[in-house]
Amino acid sequence: MTPVSVRSSASRGSALILALLVTFILTLLGISFLLTTGTESRIAENERREAQTLYAAETGLRVVRYWFDAPSAALGFPPDAACDRSRRSVIDEDDPYGTPPTPADGSTIPFYKQSIDQNGDGEDDLFSTPYRGDLRHKLLGADGWPDLRIDDSELAAREFLKELSSKLFGPDEIGPRPRLRISRIELFAPPYLRGVSGWQRYGMGTVRVAARLYSAVGNRKLAEHAVYGVLNEVPWSGPFGPLHSCGELALTGTPFAARWGVVTSAGAAKLSLGTLPQSWPRSLPTSPLADTLAPSDASEFVALRDGPLAGVELGDPWVRVRVGEQLDGAPPGTQP
């Protein structure tokens, strides 16, 4: 007889268990893969949001810089009502990181740019030079107690920041997408470095700008980033200015747009007052920076003034013209 192979019930049971075990393992691997993919997607989304708020804050930082560089033409220039200067606490420059800052009271320690209205528009000139001299001009606020703060927790500031953000990142109403918003701008003292003669200011001031990303629905905060930047003045040591000529110089036709610095000519120069715009009115600083072009006799300075600024003293920046030979077209009494 031919033998017949009969599979036992025990063998069939073990195969079923093995198949179920393999299926279970594969299921776990699939679930683990899906969870990992979801986690990686969320990480990538968070990194993208982080980058968006970082770039938005850096954009705001550049905007604030132009408030100082070109206050008459800067984008989104803030009104006085949006700027909170009541939080100011002035640091001790002899010990900037040790002695507690002193709160401003408006009398003994004035607020930043308090009652400084040189252009007569009825508002304080918050971003006009100079940025040194007495306590009203100098950025001396501590981090956390800034000279000036624009924060979206205040109504006027919130409206201004919303309008500024719309100009920079587009209006909120465009599509169901997250919204970028500049949420806070602060100005305070620059970093200080210890030198041989004591603590020295490293720059003119510090700007801190914070940006947030909000969800399109529910106004939920998705990300936030803040950046710091140090402002510095244009150095005045050495020949520095908008135009230099190694020979003769003639400015008689196209209007000359420079409003600050020194225009120099090694030879004769010819200019028409109509080609030079009026300089911005400024108060002379108590301790002007060294300028190697400046003569020893201050009467040799040629400050070009025109129109309503006639008789107004010009500090820095100003437009000056210095020539090696004859200067044709200069106002009467200014020719050295």
Spatial shape: elongated
Tally of extended strands? 14
Low-confidence stretches: 279-285, 289-317
Helix/strand-derived category reads alpha/beta
Count of helices?
Answer: 2
Radius of gyration: 32 Å
Ordered list of secondary-structure elements with their pairings:
Layout: H1 9-69, E1 89-90, E2 102-103, E3 148-151, H2 155-169, E4 179-188, E5 192-195, E6 198-201, E7 205-214, E8 221-231, E9 243-245, E10 249-251, E11 261-265, E12 269-271, E13 319-323, E14 327-328
Parallel strand pairs: 9-11, 10-12, 11-13, 12-14
Antiparallel strand pairs: 1-2, 3-4, 4-7, 5-6, 7-8
Descriptive account of the structure:
By secondary structure, the protein is an alpha/beta fold. The protein is built from 2 helices and 14 strands. A hairpin with a 2-residue loop joins strand 5 and strand 6. The termini are far apart.
Features:
single chain, 336 residues, alpha/beta, four-stranded antiparallel beta sheet, three-stranded parallel beta sheet, 2 helices, elongated
Brief synopsis:
This protein has 336 residues and is of the alpha/beta class. 23% of the residues lie in helices and 20% in strands.
